[in-house]
Amino acid sequence: MFVFSEHVNLKKERLMCGIVGYTGSREASPILIGGLRRLEYRGYDSAGLALLGEDGDMQVYKAVGKVANLEDLIKDKNLSSGTGIAHTRWATHGAPSTINSHPHQSQSGRFAIVHNGIIENYAVIRKRLMGMGYTFRSETDTEVLVQLLEYMVTNRGITDTVEAVRATLKEVIGAYAICILDRTRPGEIILAKQSSPLVVGVGEGNSEFFVGSDASPIVEYTKEVIYLEDAQIARIVPGQPISITTIENRCVQPHVQHLEMSIGSLEKGGYDHFMLKEIFEQPQVLRDCMRGRVLPSRHSIVLSALSSHSEVLTHAGRFIIISCGTSWHAGLIGKQLIENFCDTPVEVEYASEFRYRNPVIRKDDVVIAISQSGETADTLAAMQLAKEKGAFLFGIVNVIGSSIARTATTGIYTHVGPEVGVASTKAFTGQLTVLSMFALALGHLKGTITDGFYHEAVDELYHIPDKMEKVLEEDARIADMAKQFTYARNFLYLGRGYNYPLAMEGALKLKEISYIHAEGYPAAEMKHGPIALIDADMPVVFVATQRHIYDKAISNIQEVKSRKGKVYAIVFEGDENVSKVADFAIKVPVTSDFLSPIVSTVPLQLLAYHVAVNKGLNVDMPRNLAKSVTVE
Ligand code: M6R
């Protein structure tokens, strides 16, 4: 369930890096490398680790590029150590380089740190420390943390490491999740968090501890985890209970949670790429998403967030959806669903725009934040702004316990499992499923849709996964078609109504993994400009599954064809007319218009996937992108 948290400070931007830590009786380095691999999706321009031996000997290794480079670097080294911290970086302060990679060490080499976040006042601190003779090696903001820590110990004489960390953090402004090793304290790791997530996995009887910037590096070892809250400092030592205090030195009782996430859900499961696995698992994860919520025997939908907040939601004067990227496209479809079924106006905004204007929020506004990761910085900041202005916050989130989930007053988890591929696929269809459930259930509660329509729609929604399975059978044909598009330089995606946001989503999928320029347009707008681009080299993907505008779709396709454009159409089974004019047609099972985007998105995902594979690109980790966009 969503948990309201007062402590999430959303004003600070965070860095898209991954953190892993381990202390216990096993060899730390394989655990750290394995964990970094799982976190590589967060950022991947360099990686590094620090190991602390029982005698206080510290070894630090760093490599530019993927985690595999770090693995290569350490493979012949003697790394026997049960305590270590590691990091995979996505550069913001200072170029990707070995020097700028984490871990960073203090001047004397006593402390090593890995950090996810941004220290906003780093320049001032750095100047001050340099004035006192401290030498900096990197261009990063992170290095000030570790040098300031050393200053607290040597210049201020603070002997206890946790106290020195506390004094350090009191001087910094910014966001951080940090892990620190101290050569004088073998076996110990100090952790702290502010606005960046940090999770501790607890081994049997506190015999060992695992640390991650999310739970994915931890779940193969333990399911018992503690999510640190903002302004907390923790100390982990094998054989002792975790000790947590706040920056203000108040003791905190650890709250251990049991995770349901399985390791299988993090593996590729026989597929060549996570993206393909995630496309193919959509029917199953959508069944999971609907389990216990869509009740076929009663032809109804039960959503606890709706039951417990029915007053606010049924009386909402307006919904404002805030999100980014794919989640924003889901929001645009959500707008049509909610307006059609609930008769309540909906605005959809890029979170990044919303947060930097002065949006008018009325007291009966409900803000819906949509996010796969639950960590997108712009969405978090937009929520914070909406909260300050008195809006009721509702979340549609995939990652359980994430910052957005904790910030929302209530909401609905998509429950599609971990999504690793940078290109969002199952998270999108999960969001559409949740939005459909929400709009139908709310419309029924408000009486803005009839019982008959509601019951039929619920039954149809329940069977959507079966229809997706049929579309997935078309994979080989789509792969074949993709061969003809692989060398196109531009693509146009067109659709109307519910299919317009889908056209934008199809274009986003293609551009982010195949680096081909693509644009999604409302089909009727084509003649107001984009038609000038159409020639024999311009493939046009047309999603033509909206019944009431079917004839108009045919006219639009003919306009493209008469300018020699190549048309790739997605149509319903039984279609004759579009299939005749299009160069290629993929037929998807017939569904109601409002549910068709869930089904029609599958061929768009597969097309983008196969084009990228044909081009030999890294589908799961496209250049310049990261899975969680935790910077502005
Ligand atoms: O985790 P979120 O849903 O908040 O992420 C929003 C976008 O960053 C994300 O959808 C991005 O556009 C994906 N790479 C799209 O495939």
Largest pleated sheet: 8 strands, antiparallel
Mean pLDDT: 90
Uncertain parts: 1-15
- Strand arrangement in the largest pleated sheet: 3-2-4-1-10-9-11-15
Separation of the first and last Cα atoms: 27 Å
State the shape: globular
What share of residues are in beta strands? 15-25%
What is the rounded Rg? 26 Å
Commentary on this structure:
With 632 residues, this protein is an alpha/beta fold. The chain is 35% helix and 22% strand. It has 21 helices and 27 strands. The strands form five sheets. The protein has an eight-stranded antiparallel β-sheet, covered by helices on one side. A seven-stranded antiparallel β-sheet has the order 5-6-7-8-12-13-14. A hairpin with a 4-residue loop joins strand 13 and strand 14. Helix 10 packs parallel to helix 14 (426-446), helix 14 (426-446) runs antiparallel to helix 15 (451-462) and helix 16 runs parallel beside helix 21 (596-614). It is globular. Residues 1-15 have low confidence and may be disordered. It binds 5-amino-5-deoxy-1-O-phosphono-D-mannitol. 5-amino-5-deoxy-1-O-phosphono-D-mannitol (M6R) is lined by residues 324-327, 371-373, 376, 379, 422-424, 508, 512, 628-629.
Defining traits:
globular; binds 5-amino-5-deoxy-1-O-phosphono-D-mannitol; eight-stranded antiparallel sheet; alpha/beta; 27 strands; disordered N terminus; seven-stranded antiparallel sheet
Break the fold down into its secondary structure elements and pairings:
Elements: E1 18-23, H1 28-39, E2 46-52, E3 58-64, H2 67-74, E4 83-89, E5 104-105, E6 111-119, H3 122-131, H4 142-154, H5 161-171, E7 174-182, E8 189-194, E9 199-202, E10 209-212, E11 224-227, E12 232-236, E13 243-246, E14 251-252, E15 257-258, H6 274-280, H7 282-290, E16 294-295, E17 300-301, H8 304-308, H9 310-314, E18 318-323, H10 325-342, E19 346-350, H11 351-354, E20 365-371, H12 377-388, E21 392-397, H13 403-407, E22 410-413, H14 426-446, H15 451-462, H16 464-472, H17 475-485, E23 490-495, H18 499-514, E24 517-522, E25 539-543, H19 550-561, E26 566-572, H20 577-581, E27 584-588, H21 596-614
Parallel strand pairs: 18-19, 18-20, 20-21, 21-22, 23-24, 23-25, 25-26, 26-27
Antiparallel strand pairs: 1-4, 1-10, 2-3, 2-4, 5-6, 6-7, 7-8, 8-12, 9-10, 9-11, 11-15, 12-13, 13-14, 16-17
Bound molecules: 5-amino-5-deoxy-1-O-phosphono-D-mannitol.
Residues 324-327, 371-373, 376, 379, 422-424, 508, 512, 628-629 line the site of 5-amino-5-deoxy-1-O-phosphono-D-mannitol.
